[in-house]
Fold this protein.
Amino acid sequence: MANRLKLEIVTPEALTYSAEVEMVTLPGIEGEMGVYPNHVPLMTQIMAGEVIARKDGQDQFLAVGEGFVEITAERVAIMTDMAILAENIDEAKAEEARRRAEARLNEKLDDAEAALVNAALAQSLAQLKVKRRQRGG
């Protein structure tokens, strides 16, 4: 297992992804972060965005929400509020969610409502980015 990582992505609903991978790219709070086997131990926050898992030489794309990642030499464990494989993203629903969230931001919202709307917007944008990359544009 020296040249592989166990990638596990957990949401409140379920274990969304679990596989042995060669590399993982994460949307860190200070930018994109690549993780290879034997990485130094680290726990950090992730932003809504794209996770790329390289498995058997092929890249698999997932849209994720905000959360945390724990990295060890052999394992990457992501705890997030959303994780969807690119092929499972409904682009029309994600686009509609983006439009609704942007419209709500124009309303007078308290801080808690604004935070929820911004999180929903970030999730829909992450889904659209991943889906459109998979589609090639």
About this structure: Residues 111-135 form the longest helix (25 residues). The domain at 89-135 is CATH 1.20.5 (Single alpha-helices involved in coiled-coils or other helix-helix interfaces). The chain has a mean pLDDT of 91.
